[in-house]
User: Fold Transcriptional regulator, TetR family from Granulicella rosea.
Amino acid sequence: MVKKQRSLQRREESLSRDSIIEASVALLDSGGEDGLTFRALSERLSTGPGAIYWHIADKSDLLTAACDSVVARTIHEIVETTPEETIRAIAAGLFDAISTHPWIGSALTSAPGASPIVRIVESIGQQICQLHVPETHQWTAAGALMAFILGVSSQNAANGQLARRQNLDRTDFLEALSTTWSQLDPEEYPFARSVAGRIRDHDDRADFLAGIDLILMGIESMRLRSQA
Amino acid sequence: MVKKQRSLQRREESLSRDSIIEASVALLDSGGEDGLTFRALSERLSTGPGAIYWHIADKSDLLTAACDSVVARTIHEIVETTPEETIRAIAAGLFDAISTHPWIGSALTSAPGASPIVRIVESIGQQICQLHVPETHQWTAAGALMAFILGVSSQNAANGQLARRQNLDRTDFLEALSTTWSQLDPEEYPFARSVAGRIRDHDDRADFLAGIDLILMGIESMRLRSQA
DNA sequence: ACCTGAACACCGTTCAAGT
DNA sequence: ACCTGAACACCGTTCAAGT
Assistant:
């Protein structure tokens, strides 16, 4: 009879916004942006495509909600220490999350002002306040950090997706990119050629965190200057 | 007979990669990302949808090519002065270009390593070299600037598109965003609430350029530190 | 109130057939 | 070599009809 109760409960698990979002995240993770389809989704949830529209407005709503669920979890896991360290932790957490769920990158930039963005702004902004950045500069500092984090992370995720589409691993992909850049016209592309070698064996994540430190240094300079 | 020659010439203008890209940019500008369709494109070029595939690999190729044509034009227009000023000019030029052609933002992030990105890296990198940033840090500096420029510009463009979709102008949109943020839960979102007012009448472009200065300050700190 | 699934109006892409 | 346009295999979304 335990069995009976179990299967009864299971059948009572009706369609809900949360279960739809959970299934969407799974589909996006396994099949990328193209993997999320109302047909694939309804099949996975053993229902019809129309049923989903009772709980979700449209595909954009669905994508933002899926995005928000991952962002919320990521930010929730951050352990707060010093402001600088916490900002680095937020940055690294989002970088890794976007790396594992590459679809987040593009979903975030097409949902400005929506809840996932607000979560990120908030978590960064609270640390900016604790750094004693004057009120008039807080938005500049938080906005710059957020844009940088999302910008680099999305770019990195896009690299990974491109590599996967070409059936290469990360090393082979960077190798190929490095080779292409090193063969560019020396007259027109001296810089790209000169950094081509460095690209081959660089660590995107370390570079990213170095960029964060760069901005933190800039924020410190700004703070000092505005005090003078 | 002049007339005859003219119309003859005009008919001889057959389909070419360039004319396809030009038409694509026009469609993207007027109808956004959804406006670019092989059917709409072939109609505009008075041909069949299949004809386009003779000159272009697929839609992704088409989007990257359209993107590249705008980026190339933008970078070409930059007048070189001091390294810092030139970097600001590149940044402002790209910000404005992405503002006018909002579809560039998402197209750029989904085409990593492709020619438009290389153009941008190159133009920024050349200035970084002139700032006497040590070789080992050049890629970090150029990469950080690029990510920031593309990140903020895309975000800004996405804001504009969202506003347009809601039939609001920029002021009304920021007004609405500010109101939403000011009504957030004070316990959970103190920062977003506190900057809500500042968002209403801020200048995205000025904020963006302030962010660029922030990063330039960070690069200067990095350079000084690595010399010591 | 919530779900079903056929139907509608689209897509990108292919390909035999033309010139 | 280049173009045509019908056809294929999909989409997101709607909506009468069910429970």
